[in-house]
Amino acid sequence: MNKVNLAEKFSLVKDYWSPAIAGELNGQQVKLVKFKGPFTWHHHENEDELFYVVKGSFIMEFRERNVQVNEGEFIIVPHGVEHRPNAPEEVWVMLFEPASTLNTGNQQNEFTKKELDII
Amino acid sequence: MNKVNLAEKFSLVKDYWSPAIAGELNGQQVKLVKFKGPFTWHHHENEDELFYVVKGSFIMEFRERNVQVNEGEFIIVPHGVEHRPNAPEEVWVMLFEPASTLNTGNQQNEFTKKELDII
What we know:
Two copies of one chain form a homodimer. Chain A has one helix and eight strands; from the N terminus they run E-H-E-E-E-E-E-E-E. By secondary structure, chain A is mainly β. Chain A has a single domain, classed as Sandwich (Jelly Rolls), CATH 2.60.120. In chain A, strands 2, 3, 4, 5, 6, 7 and 8 form a seven-stranded antiparallel sheet that branches. Chain A is globular and about 40 Å long. The two termini of chain A are 14 Å apart.
C-alpha cells in the first residue's frame, strides 16, 4: 500500500514501447509505457485497453478515423477493434488492462515485449 | 471510442464524494470523484481500489499509518483493508475499480452514493 509516483517510475522506463508494470488490482495491471513513432496494427481478442496520457500526446489510429489523445485525456479501445498508436513525439502513457494482455495483441513481431516487473 | 478529457468531465461533477462514471472496460469502471474533508472509515469485501490524483492532494488514512497522495501519484487499496480518504482541500481523484464497488464499502451512511451515469 505504498503510493506510486508516475514521474519517478517513468524515469526508470528506458525503451520505447516496453511496458513496465506499476501496479496490480482485481486481475488488472497498470502499465507505464513511453511511445515514440508508429506502433504496429493489432487488436486484442478479449481485452479492452485504457490509454491515459500523462505527458505529451499521441494519435490513436483506427481503420476508419484517428483520435488525438492529449495530456489529461484517456481513450478506451474495446477488444476486437484494430488500432495503432502513433506518437510523432515521445509521450508517456499509463495503460489499464487485464494482466493477460500482450502489447501487440494478435500480432507477434519486433514490437512484442514481455512487461518489465513491477517498478 | 471517443476520448475523455478529465478536466472537462470534472467540471460536470458538482458534489463532493459523489462518483461519476467516466468509462468502463473489462468489468471495471473509471470513476471521477471530488474529495473534500474526511470520508467515512470502510473497507471493501472483494474489490481492490486504485486512487489516482488528477489535481491537489489528499491523505489516505489506514489504521496504522497515513499516506499523502499528491498530484500525479496513485495508491492501490487492497480489498479487506480499512481506509478513510481525508482531503484538507478539494482534490480531484480518478478511481479505477470493479463495477460492483459501492463507495462506502461495508458501511451504509450519509456518504453512500450511487454513481452518476457515464458523463
